[in-house]
Design brief:
- The structure holds 2 protein chains of 2 kinds.
- By secondary structure, chain A is an alpha+beta fold.
- Chain A is built from 17 helices and 24 strands.
- In chain A, the strands form 7 sheets. In chain A, strands 2, 5, 10, 11 and 14 form a 5-stranded antiparallel β-sheet that branches. A 5-stranded antiparallel β-sheet of chain A has the order 7-4-12-6-9, covered by helices on one side.
- Chain A is elongated.
- Chain B is of the alpha/beta class.
- A 7-stranded mixed β-sheet of chain B has the order 1-4-3-2-6-7-10. A two-stranded antiparallel sheet of chain B has the order 5-11. In chain B, strands 8-9 form a two-stranded antiparallel ribbon.
- Chain B is globular, with a radius of gyration of 16 Å.
- The chains are: A alpha+beta, B alpha/beta.
- At the A-B interface, helix 3 of A face helix 1, helix 2, strand 9 and strand 11 of B.
């Protein structure tokens, strides 16, 4: 029989994103580009129609309109006039429009920030009684696209049950697991979220889970979804989902750059991580996710680098300026595409910058008055090229004093790292695009080595470093790293399984089987370990011994064509031809492009005397791989039998 | 008006001129949702709390559960609560719908000519004013915030440290006489009438 050569691996902690992102920018109004405010001579009156409407329509109306996140509309003179003094105040303190980054520190896309001149105009207008001015000067009211911003999505997924946000209390962090009803691999070029009431859903983050880990967690938590500010997922393939799939109220769809579509298949769960703010009354939400597909497979593969040093967060009560830093040296050339800083309520000052090998300092972002509620992903206006050897820096300062009104503890108490709102985090996620897809292994290796500097003996770092080294063809080093990881966490089925796979790759099948067996013992429902153990036993020729594991692999992953193929093959080898045909038929159905499944099914059918059908599948195998010698030989044998058989 | 950058120490304790005497005014345009005119303050022998609010102010709305609790807590102690909607464009139907949605029971007043706004000196929503009967005429003993949770736009404590309105009502219902005082409330500006 034929089985795929590569064993299945696990990767850990590949996707860990914070609790989502904020409404910093809303969809732009379809208005003409307006020139920056020009100073109005002191002798002239500032009027709404000529001076203020262009500013408000462009910067405020995208969110301040019906159905959007702003609590009231700002679509005409009457709306704006009655709030003139408040608009003057919130623009003066730069509370609105919300744009926390400092101007001039990082080249961020779409800054929604008023100029000093614009703010001064608004102050004058309000102080002078907020006059309307001549109608002739009035710009057209802003026009917006209704409904889905990119038109009807190719696929709309709804959260299975609605969820009720309580009327009051602290912010709610809730995660919903959605399965996309797709068959085979689909490439997603854009995503739009319709979360329900945008005045309640403050921001959202979508993570991709390809192992069902979030689904298992959801099952343990009562009610729709599960609680948690931050989500950690296991990944079983190093195709890191290195896209910031975040949503902020009013945003148009999250559209990926050319060639950077992300993939989903029937095993992919979308994990919707929502930050919800009580509004004063119970609010029922039922989010919708709209996906837009493309036929074009991705050609450019970014990666998310996480700078952090959560282990160093131990902030004494009262400390007004406690800083945590991290740095990361790029082992390859890369472009920075976007940044996402993340801290909780005690965070104060967030800095991200790069130093180039020649000593030049390039700012990525600086937020001087960190506000958890306004966190966001910030794409750069233009990719920032960083040559190999450049160092990325993160510096996050915390204010754990009584003077920080957002401090969740009163009086302040010692703050350490954690997932609760009274704990802290300090992360700077940097999305980089290396020159080549495989460069990501070098980035990953460097990331994990840096992690080991911060956290000697760390399980995740050793495990992922092992995987990175294995991918770079350094099996012996990889095996050593996996063994280090297992010292920290001997019961890890995922790493046992990976160690087995690495041993198998390096030719030690007996040692591999021993590790797979331990993995299965540690976690009997771990499909990868069952799969690999079954396969390894098949390779050893122990078909009967392999069967129960392969049956279990199929039971745990019924849609997995490879598992069906392997089970079918083992059944065939043990003489269970009828059952083999059944399993192999399902393997072919699940993956019509599988050479192995067509080949094995052809053989099984030939053995049961169904020569015509057998020939058909062997021919199909040869269409997939025209020079496959096994399929040619089997087909020739079948044809010969057909020729001998009387009609 | 200037706004200092830090508000945390800004409990203003001064009794303002004109603050003490209030009830002698007669109201021409203050009506309840059925159109009945408000005659005088306080509404009964006990204290009356006016809660200035509007239908679309998120800061006000987030106080709905707290207002409900305060209402329940002090209703049996002779305190009357009235929501005051001061935006003349908010109709009785819209106000009823707002009260239903946010579970705000009790009665509401409309103040389209800002008579109560001026009398109390309210500037934002939510802001409260407490009136009591006094031998020399009705007087306002407190005006300002409900509690100190909101510190500024975008700056709120997770929990209030001072519950100003509850403290005032506790003192009054315990029979104590209060020196009139005000605090600065944070919220949505009450627009001046044209």
């Amino acid at each position: 029989m034929r089985v795929p050569a590569r064993a299945r691996r696990a990767f850990l902690g590949a996707a860990l994103l914070g609790s989502g992102l904020a409404l910093v920018a809303c969809a732009p109004a379809r208005t003409e580009d307006v020139a920056p405010a020009t100073p109005v001579p002191v002798a002239e009156r500032v009027t709404f129609n000529r001076d203020i409407a262009p500013i408000v329509f462009r910067n405020c109306a995208p969110c301040h309109r019906p159905g959007e996140a702003g609590p009231f509309s700002l679509l005409g003179y009457a709306d704006v006039h009655k709030r003139a003094s408040q608009i003057a105040r919130v623009t003066r303190i730069r509370f609105m429009p919300p744009w926390p980054p400092e101007a001039g520190y990082g080249d961020l896309a779409g800054p929604r920030r008023l100029t000093d001149e614009q703010i001064a105009l608004i102050q004058r207008w309000a102080a002078e009684g907020a006059p309307e001015g001549p109608p002739a000067a009035a710009p057209a009211p802003p026009a917006f696209t209704a409904g889905w911003q990119l038109g009807p999505p190719d696929l709309v997924i709804e959260v299975p049950e609605s969820y009720t946000v309580p009327a009051e209390g602290t912010d709610v962090f809730r995660n919903f697991v959605l399965r996309a009803p797709v068959h085979g691999t689909r490439y997603v070029r854009a995503m739009e979220l319709r979360p329900g009431d945008k005045r309640v859903v403050h921001h959202a983050n979508v993570l991709l889970d390809r192992t069902g880990s979030a689904r298992r967690r959801d099952a343990k938590d009562p009610g729709p979804g599960f609680a948690g500010m931050d989500v950690e997922l296991e990944s079983d393939a190093f195709e890191p989902d290195s896209h910031f799939l975040f949503w902020k109220p009013g945003t148009a769809a999250v559209t990926e750059p050319e060639g950077m579509a992300w993939t989903i298949d029937e095993r992919t769960d979308l994990v919707l991580n929502l930050h919800l703010q009580p509004s004063g009354k119970p609010e029922v939400i039922r989010p919708l996710v709209g996906l837009y597909f493309t036929k074009t497979a991705p050609t450019r593969f970014p990666m998310l680098l996480q700078l952090e040093h959560d282990g160093a967060i131990d902030i004494p009560p009262g400390a007004p300026d406690f800083a945590v830093t991290d740095e990361y040296t790029l082992p390859v050339d890369a472009e920075v595409l976007a940044v996402y800083p993340h801290a909780h309520y005690v965070g104060k000052d967030v800095q991200g910058f790069a130093t180039l090998p020649d000593g030049t300092k390039k700012w990525l972002i600086w937020i001087r008055d960190w506000d958890f509620a306004w966190q966001a992903v910030y794409p750069l206006a233009h990719p920032l090229f960083l040559p190999r050897g450049s160092v990325l820096h993160m510096r996050i300062a915390y204010d754990n004093s009584e003077g920080n009104v957002r401090n969740p503890s009163h009086p302040p108490r010692r703050v350490v790292t954690g997932n609760r709102s009274t704990d802290e985090m300090g992360h700077l996620w940097v999305q980089v695009l290396p020159r080549q897809r495989d460069d990501r292994w070098a980035l990953q290796e460097a990331l994990m080595r840096r992690r080991l500097e911060k956290y000697p003996g760390d399980f995740v770092a050793h495990a992922n470093l092992g995987a990175a080294l294995e991918a770079r063809g350094r099996a012996a080093e990889a095996i050593a790293e996996y063994r280090q990881a297992l010292l920290a966490r001997p019961e890890s089925a995922a790493v046992r399984n990976n160690l087995g796979a690495a041993l198998q790759t390096s030719g030690d099948l007996d040692a591999a089987i021993a590790e797979y067996q331990q993995a299965v013992q540690a976690q009997p429902d771990y499909p990868n370990a069952r799969h690999n153990l079954g396969n390894a036993l098949v390779l050893r020729g122990a078909f009967a011994e392999a069967l129960p594991h392969l049956r279990e692999a199929v039971r745990l992953s019924p849609d997995d064509a490879t598992a069906r193929n392997n089970l079918g093959g083992a059944l065939l080898e043990t003489g269970r031809v009828v059952e083999a045909v059944e399993q192999l038929r399902r393997a072919v159905e699940a993956d019509p492009g599988s050479l192995n499944a067509h080949y094995n099914l052809g053989r099984a059918l030939a053995l049961s005397g169904r020569l015509e059908e057998a020939a058909g599948h062997l021919e199909q195998a040869l269409r997939i791989q025209p020079d496959d010698p096994d399929a040619r030989r089997e087909l020739a044998a079948v044809r010969a039998r057909q020729a001998r058989r009387p009609n | 008006m200037r706004f200092p950058s830090s508000w945390s120490a800004l409990v203003v304790l001064a009794a303002l001129a004109g603050l003490a005497r209030a009830g002698s005014a007669s109201f021409t345009g203050v009506v309840d949702l059925a159109g009945r005119r408000l005659e005088a303050l306080p509404l009964g022998p006990g204290p009356t709390v006016l809660v200035f609010t509007r239908t679309d102010c998120p800061i006000s709305n987030r106080y709905a559960p707290e207002l409900r609790r305060l209402g329940e807590r002090f209703a049996g102690r002779g305190v009357a609560f009235r929501l005051v909607y001061a935006d003349p464009t908010e109709t009785p139907a819209a106000i009823r719908e707002h009260m239903r949605a946010f579970g705000l029971g009790g009665d509401a007043l409309r103040d389209p000519q800002h008579e109560l706004v001026r009398l109390a000196g309210a500037t934002v929503t939510p802001e409260v004013a407490v009136f009591v009967a006094h031998p020399s005429g009705p007087r306002m003993v407190y005006r300002g915030r409900i509690d100190d949770r909101a510190v500024d736009f975008g700056r709120a404590r997770p929990e209030p440290r001072t519950r100003d309105l509850a403290d005032v009502l506790d003192a009054l219902t315990a029979g104590r006489t209060l020196t009139p005082r005000t605090t600065i409330a944070v919220g949505c500006a009450i627009a001046e009438l044209q």
